Amino acid sequence: MKSEFEHFQEQHLTHLNKYLEMYLSRLNGEQTLKDAMFYSVSAGGKRIRPMLILAICNETKRKIDEDVYAVAGSLELLHTYSLIHDDLPEMDNDDLRRGQLTNHKKFGQAIAVLAGDGLLTTAFECIGNTKLNDSIKAKLMTALAKAAGPQGMVSGQVADIEGEKKHLTLAELQLLHQRKTGALIAYACDAGSLLGGVSTEQQKEIHQFAMAFGLAFQIYDDILDVVSTEKQLGKAVHKDQFEHKNTYPELMGLDGAYHQLNEALFKAQCSLKSLGQLGMKTELLSGFLDYFARRKNK
Amino acid sequence: MKSEFEHFQEQHLTHLNKYLEMYLSRLNGEQTLKDAMFYSVSAGGKRIRPMLILAICNETKRKIDEDVYAVAGSLELLHTYSLIHDDLPEMDNDDLRRGQLTNHKKFGQAIAVLAGDGLLTTAFECIGNTKLNDSIKAKLMTALAKAAGPQGMVSGQVADIEGEKKHLTLAELQLLHQRKTGALIAYACDAGSLLGGVSTEQQKEIHQFAMAFGLAFQIYDDILDVVSTEKQLGKAVHKDQFEHKNTYPELMGLDGAYHQLNEALFKAQCSLKSLGQLGMKTELLSGFLDYFARRKNK
User: Which residues form a coiled coil (chains A, B) (predicted)?
Assistant: First the structure.
């Protein structure tokens, strides 16, 4: 029998994908650019980040209307930009992503850089075009820029590249991941809190959940690179190992990595318990944690 | 004797550069990234785009405070990102910019992509961090994203690349330039109008001025590539010609290009005259037009 989370995901994934397709098709720009942007956005994936926003809105009884889809969708646009640039020859140099050719393999390197630039920029436009009040718009755009920019994700990327030359300590690796993956996941949850209009106590606890979930997410990503096949992940595997990247399994072995994963999951569960005590429904957020038991691809 | 415009420029250029240095130094991120971002931002240039914002604020008696510098500075951050990505090997493949090595030549291609991404993203953060009211913040960020993204500058870039394979008509070339260069210049003037709180009539006329100025700016850029030396421009010259890029001189000869330039300048002057009739001071904006007579480098 399907869980509440699976029902929710099924229902909203279709709507979200339609929203993204419509948003991109309506942009008044060069067709080649739009094709390249849509190619990567439509490559699928679980849409974890936007789903977190939608789930928190649902749990807080915020009506999931077009504006909420726009905020959720804008995060997927921005996340997709990061994947396109990450795959570039000068970065990770990947040929496959989600089982299809990476953007630069399909459209060439110049268009891939610009498709990434376009997605990043239009993520802000997408929020700006909503009918949300200006205060919420300004807060969302500022928080998104902080999470994705040089104080967040972009610094995580740089730390990742710089880290290839040296062994990081656990604290350094945690900071790297907090910026590279954690910042956008925390933004997703903060955005959900903002749209849902939760109390300050709830907002803090949702943020704690996000931090723990984001960490678990990245550790699991590192583990999957070691234990999966290319077919399961839809992209090259064992690359981290081969390139001696700084990962949890590399730093503390596979058992150590699983231990860290379980610790992060425990923290996330504690936050959910606290949220329950604060009067918030948490079935859907709890559903996100099942992901670590059954995930087959990104 | 120095003109009012030259006095103004001298006074505010120093402040603006200090603001940019302070803003970047305070970011809590990886040092390598911050160095790469600052390297290109501090390479100089006339700062035409932020200066337009400052000039309109000055003419409308808007106090030029820290918030105005932030809005002006954020546009320079974003403009600098576009130059860094534009210079990449997969794009224009330039080694020199403003007389110094391009970002990727200095820091490597991966860091250059990320420095560009960081500058683009933090431009929005920079506006979001001001004390301006939320309505103005939201309007500025939305307009900036529209001007810089797939409905503006990024589409211009793609059209430029696609255009290398074919001859464009004058109308197509104008659309290309309107997006590639014009959109950000129009944004600068619109932002100035918003900060200055001008009337609707004045706002429309300032926008008209921006469109004409932006067009003149791009035509002059095309002309300079033909008539200048590398030393004068601080970057490689005659590349457009060599690569049969779609430019005004390529499409209609040098005389034809000068004719189009003068036509655009005439339109800009007409707008300034109308603005004067609408009760606005225009000495500073007029000073921007002198630029076309004495400009030596970007």
Answer: none
Predicted confidence (pLDDT) per residue in A53-84, tens digit? 999 999 999 999 999 999 999 999 999 999 99
Instruction: Give the pLDDT band (50/70/90) at residue A288.
Output: very high
Question: How many other CB atoms are there within 10 angstroms of residue B259's CB atom?
Answer: 14
Contacts of A137 in chain B (CB under 8 A): 134, 138, 141-142
Q: Which of A194, A83, A245 is nearest to A148 (CA)?
A: A83
Domain boundaries, chain A: 4-294
Chain B residues with beta carbon closer than 8 angstroms to that of A142: 124-125, 127-129, 137
- Average the pLDDT over A252-278 and give the result: 96
Q: How far apart are CA A16 and CA A279, in angstroms?
A: 28
Put simply, whether A183 touches B (Cβ < 8 Å) is no
B138-176 core/surface letters (b: 16 or more CB in 10 A; e: else):
bbbbbbbbbbbbbbbbbbbbbbbbbbeeeebeeeebbbb
Cα(B1)–Cα(B141) distance, integer angstroms: 39
Cα(B240)–Cα(B242) distance, integer angstroms: 5
**Is B261 in the A-facing interface, judged by CB distances under 8 Å?**
no
Provide ipTM, 2 decimals: 0.94
Tokens 């209307």 found at: A65
Compute the nearest-CA separation of A125 from chain B (Å).
Answer: 5
Q: What percent of chain B has pLDDT over 90?
A: 84
Q: How many other C-beta atoms are found inside a 10 Å radius of the C-beta of residue A26?
A: 10
Best of A80, A114, A190 to disrupt the B interface (most B CBs within 10 Å) is A114
Give A114's DSSP letter: H
Structure-block tokens of residue A24: 């991109």
Q: Does B162 touch chain A (CB under 8 A)?
A: yes
Query: What are the structure tokens assigned to B17, written together?
Result: 């550069």
Question: How many residues are there in chain B?
Answer: 298
Chain B positions in Cβ-Cβ contact with residue A105 (cut-off 8 Å): none
**Which three-class secondary structure state does DSSP give residue B93?**
coil
Q: Return phi, psi of residue B100, to 5°.
A: -125, 165
By the 8 A CB rule, do B85 and A113 touch? yes
Where are the alpha helices (H) located in chain B, listed in sequence order?
A: 4-26, 31-41, 48-59, 66-87, 103-107, 109-128, 134-148, 153-163, 170-177, 183-196, 200-227, 230-233, 239-242, 248-277, 283-294
Residue type, B245: K
The dotted CATH code for A4-294 is 1.10.600.10
Rounded Cα–Cα distance for residues B248 and A56 (Å): 53
Which residue type does B158 have? V
Interface of B with A in 69-108 (CB under 8 A): 85, 88, 90-91, 108
Encoded tokens for B111: 């860091």
Q: What is the mean pLDDT of residues B11-34?
A: 97
Kindly determine whether residue B141 and residue A129, on different chains, have CB atoms separated by under 8 Å.
Answer: no
Inform me whether the C-beta atom of residue B161 falls under 8 Å from chain A C-beta atoms.
yes
Q: Which two tokens stand for residue A50?
A: 């936007």
CA distance, residue A7 to nearest chain B CA (Å): 34
| Chain B residues 113-142 with CB within 8 Å of chain A | 113-114, 116-118, 120-125, 127-129, 134-135, 137-139, 141-142
* pLDDT (mean) for A166-187: 94
